[in-house]
Amino acid sequence: MTGPITTELHDDVLVIISNNPPVNALGAAVRQGLEAGIKEGLANDAVKAMVIRCDGRTFFAGADITEFGRPMQEPGLPTVVDMIEMADKPVVAAIHGTALGGGCEVTLGCHYRIAVPSAKIGTPEVKLGLLPGAGGTQRIPRIAGVKVALELTAKGDPMSAKMALGAGLIDRVAGEDSLVADAIAFARDIAAARPLPRAREKTAKADPEAVAAFKKDNAKRFRGFDAPAANIACVEKAADGSSFEEGIAFERAEFMKLMMGVQSAAQRHIFFAERQAAKIDGIDPKIALRPIKKVGVIGAGTMGGGISMNFLSAGIPVTIVEMAQDALDRGTGTIRKNYEASASKGRIKPEQAEAAMGALTATLDFAALADCDLVIEAVYENMDVKKEIFGKLDAICKPGAILASNTSYLDVNAIAAATNRPGDVLGMHFFSPANVMKLLEVVRGEKTSDDVLATVMALAKTIKKVAVVAGVCDGFIGNRMLKPRQIEAMKLLMEGATPEQIDRVHVAFGMPMGPFQMSDLAGVDIGWHRDPTRIESIRDALAAEGRWGQKTQKGFYDYDEKRNPTPSPRVAEIIEDFRAKSNMQKREISDEEIIEKTLYTMVNEGALILEEKMAQRASDIDVVWIYGYGWPIYRGGPMFWADSEGLKKIVAGLEKHGFAVSELLKSKAESNGRFN
Ligand code: 3HC
Q1: Taking every annotated instance into account, which residue ranges of this chain make up the domain 3-hydroxyacyl-CoA dehydrogenase C-terminal (predicted)?
Q2: Distance (Å, rounded) from C-alpha 48 to C-alpha 512?
Q3: For atom 1 of ligand 1, which residue has the closest CA?
């Protein structure tokens, strides 16, 4: 046999082996090979049982997503899984790494399953806007019951081998280093057992209460998504007395609906966009990286503390420096509290919390940063202060140390110029809360060395961030695009929209909150000049009255003690007042106009960012908005969304309101092009 599948005969057991790096995706050649392998085992009288296993780092991690949207080559995965299940010799799946999606479904077609303790099993298709479409929604409930099936399919989180054993999804746990031998021994143990256990022949018991509770518990998580409901419907079908064949037909129809829809296309786009973002154009992927064994953080405030936790959690020691003892104590106290809270919620083990705290050194002494491999400055946004700090770092830090600023909009080139080593300087823009938010904008200065950039991009993966390279411009990628949205939202208030209306439109679009809810959460006083007599904008007026947002229980909304918002009559008055002073007439604003003015302008800014080469690619912009600002993943990020709306429509909307349209956006629209 040629191709990714080979076979090995171990006396009476035929082992079918896949070798399709990097993740043994079930592409056409693998499916063909599996079919041929099973046929070989059935045809050879000496073979009493078969084992399917994978070489490399993992068992089949799923269908080959790159094949989606193209004509499917035979045999399809459902056919292969059926063939395995219908074989009249026992087939054992030997699982290591991750048996995901179609990979999990292959194991469900097998009569028996054995896994190493570190293996993970799951059906994450829902995260790609899909459902397990090779019989998974029908076999999981039949093997493990409705509750487990709902968790696995509609939420998509994988389970450990131990949990899978408890749920009946695997039959045995192998030794971590003896999977092949243990699987062959298992195959011999059950070689003669009949009848063969086939998932399709089992029945699942309906559990309407569990379904109702599951829907209720996850309503927030599923809001706006099509795929979870389709997964749930398929699981219900498996338990409603329908035949297996009827269930499969239902699953297929639901799968195809999702596959053809824009949500799955968006979610698949983001899957690849996230991986693409890690790649730096023009830099050799094999470039030697600088070792990062110790990190320094300047500033123990909310940002500095959150940034430190990323490294501590990854086992990298951190030295945190502050100016005053009370600020330092407060900062380290918050870090400790966060770890203790995670431990008490069972998210980490108490010893992990202790280990993380043990790796933290807190000091007032700048000189303690001398042996750090990377120092991240996280003090307040003031260029003079930053320049002074970088001058000091230049004098103290060892040669080769990387010096990073967490600035969210200041000129990284000017900061780098305060040192004699601008090649070692870049921006690392974390998003608040920095220990939670997945996005990291890595800002490449004019003089940043290739190896410095590559080192930080690789480090981002170690600390579980999704990193995107940005150029030096005001606000980089994310905040730069936020700006037109904020400006337009404020203008719309003046023209007659209310904060509630604008926020409602954004939430209905799928954003976690609208621009005014976001202002109230972040603080209306952010960036305020702090002179209550100088009232030049609606924001100034709010700030001057102490309407600083949730923290003062009033901002664009009024809040009760539980932080529930209600529209504020006082804010309406302030807006009215401004409108009168500017001689503006209130008019009806449509939801459509809000979308055009606040979202189309973001797309336009994104196009300018691309024109100016401040982002490497449109998909990077999408990644920034998904992981930094909660853009609904089922809309694929602003640039993908613009593509799916049609760029001509976006340009027409912008022109209708008199906006200057980016040349790139215009030319793409004219040629019926796309960003992605
Ligand atoms: N198809 C095609 N390519 C895949 C793939 C897949 N299912 N899974 C991963 N890859 C590619 C990645 O794009 C990446 O390519 P690159 O190196 O060119 O960027 C490479 O394999 C390595 O992937 P990761 O960087 O993600 O490697 P990790 O080790 O970090 O993670 C993993 C491994 C956990 C398996 C992760 O890749 C993953 O979650 N993969 C997707 C799993 C999934 O969603 N499976 C369901 C597919 S849909 C399906 O099966 C439908 C069926 O029901 C009919």
Answers
A1: 475-559
A2: 56
A3: 64
